[in-house]
Amino acid sequence: MAEFGMARATLVEAAKRGDFRARPQAMPIDELLVATPRGRHNLKQRLLKAGLKSARCEICGLDEWRGAPLSLALHHANGDKHDNRLENLQMLCPNCHSQTENFSGRNRRAA
User: What are phi and psi of 81, to 5 degrees?
Assistant: First the structure.
């Protein structure tokens, strides 16, 4: 604990007060890839890390623009943002994403 610049007693007291707690386990990728509103915030990174998607636009094939990596969007092909099945997800560049029929809630069906 000396490497963090604190005494052991400081850490023990903080634990007793409940100032920090264990980090929850990451949701398994299988559970993320179902129709659920849970866990969307890091789905794109998890898909890339697991090798289930690549950092390249699935329509035009670009992975960089003007020498820099493209910021890709995770597109839900059927327009349902809770439908995280792998066959419904596409990695798209901003240009291709803006051309999809359900981009940004366009053509959303009334529930």
Answer: -65, -10
Q: Please give the tally of structural domains in the chain.
A: 1
Of 78, 81, 69, the closest CA to residue 100 belongs to 78
Of the candidates 28, 108, 31, which has an alpha carbon nearest to the alpha carbon of residue 76? 108
Question: Which residues are CB-contacts of 103 (< 8 A; sequence separation ≥ 6)?
Answer: 75, 97
User: Which DSSP symbol is given to 34?
Assistant: S
pLDDT tens column, 1-56: 667 777 888 878 888 888 877 667 777 777 777 766 665 668 899 999 999 999 99
Place of tokens 């005494």: 7
User: Is residue 8 domain-resident?
Assistant: no
Q: What are phi and psi of 44, to 5 degrees?
A: -60, -45
**Residue 44: domain span:** 27-108
